[in-house]
Every structure is written in C-alpha cells, then in structure tokens.
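My current task is to audit a protein record that another person submitted. Please read both lines and tell me whether the tokens look consistent with the sequence. Do not assume that whoever made the record got everything right. I have pasted the whole thing underneath without changing anything:

===
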Amino acid sequence: MFLSLMAVGVLLFTGNILADDQAVADADCVTFVNCPRGLSTSHCSPVSFQFEAVNSRSEKPNRGIRYHLTSGPGTIDERSGLWTFDPRTIDVTEWGQRFKGMVAATQGHSRQADTCVFSVWVYNYAPRPFYLGSYYKDSIPVIAGRHNMIPVWWLDRDSCDVIQKAFSFVSLAPVGSIYIDDDPNATTIPDVGNLYFFPDMADAGKDFVIHLTAFDGIDSSSLDLHMYVQPQVVVPSAYTLRIEKKHFVLQGQFQDVSVFLEKASSDTITGGLSGFDILTGHDASALSLQVVFADSSSVYQQCS
C-alpha cells in the first residue's frame, strides 16, 4: 500500500512538469512575421505600419496575441497590431532625427513571447528656389528704367511647410528697386514667387549678383542670379503706318482720312507703336482736326 501511493505521487508530479514545458514551448513559438527595421516619413505626413506576430504551433496562429508599444513614438492597437504615428506632434528641432521603438507580442497571461525593435526617421526636405528664365542664371540681361520680371519657382516637397523667401546682394547693391512677388501663405507646389527688378538709369552698365534664399524654419538653400543692366535704347517701332492722301478737298467741310497698319511686330524695348503724327498742308484758311475714328465706331482722340 505504501509503495502504490508513492507511485501515484510520482506520476502526478511528472504530469505537471510536462504541462509547464508545453506552455513554455507554445510561448516560444510566438514570433514576429512582420517587423520593420526602419521606417521614414516627412514631418508633414502621418505614418502607420501593421505589426504581425503568429504562433506557429496553433491552429489559429493569430488568436489571442496582444501587441504592446514598450518604447518609442506613436500608439499601437493592442489587438490588431496597427501602429500609427503623427510626426506633426513633435517639435521642429526634432526634424531629421531617428526615433527608436520596440513592440512586444504576448499570448496568454501576458507572457512576453517576442519583440520587434524598429526605428522611424522623420525627415525634412530643404526648400529650393529655381530659376526658370530662358537665359543662363549667370548672365541674365535686364534693361534700365524698366520692370524686368525674372521667373522663379520655390519648391518644398514637405506639403505643410510655408517657405520664407528672401534676397540679398552679394556685393554691389543697385540704385533701382527689387522685390519678390510673394504670397507668404501660399501652399501651392511649386510656389511661384517671381523676382522683379527695376534698375535705375544709374545702374546701366553694371553687374549685380542677387542671392535668393528659401527657408522653412529649420533648413534652407540658396540660388545666385547674375544680372547685367543694359541701357535703355530707343529703337524705331517696327510698325508701319500709311495715311491716305486726299486731293482737291473743300475747305470748311469734314473729311475722313483712312490710316492703315501695314506691318506689325513686337518691339521689346519701346513696346511697339505708341502714336503717330499727321502732316498737313493748307492755305490761309484754318484747318481743324476734329475726330479720329477707327472702323467708324470708336473715338480715339478729339482736338481742334
């Protein structure tokens, strides 16, 4: 009788050891199958990742697994393993940094089975000014006494950034005026902020280097534009006018005189036709020019 009881006790004790070993073995089989080593995102864009761990010895490998963010930024859904992070919540001084994190997968009685170590890089693109003119940026001709528009785009790939635009002169500053046609709240990509330069006549014959700078609050980049000022030269208009000749007309009566535009082209210096003179010959009687018509409908000028 004594020997039988001892035998039963040994058998029961052996069974408990096997049960514990099986629980440990099951826990050790929970492993991550979707674990990122490195994630990256713009400081303007929220990011997410689907963590996943399974128990390979279970008929339902995902059943009962819980996820916990033990360190690092963001939050994780305990049941689904979906991790989310909004970098817009961090300080601007943290742009460009890498944040380390760890997610633990557990199953049953909060037993930790596996961990996933990852990092998140929050980057910031430096804004950049781009010259879009037809001349080389180191030899842009401008004309004294005129508003010269230099086309410039300002690009920042971070959609939430507001670009701060500025200019300076590398050495000599002009007598004339210069400004950036800028909307400080513009959010278009790219942001158009053309440069306008109105050189004074005293600037003619001089070279200027204009230093453009784009800044987003943390990073910046620049662009130098080299300009030389040409004097304003008066060039005869390329328009040709022909005024009808009238013979044997009576004085004291109105007379229509036709004016024809024979040729037209754009004049980049003077801007094209601005007016014309009518030369007349007459005797002692007064001659009055009353009205100049165009297509017999619109009055252009009235004088006497």
About this structure: Residues 134 and 163 are 25 Å apart (CA to CA). The two ends are 147 Å apart (CA to CA). The chain has one helix and 23 strands.
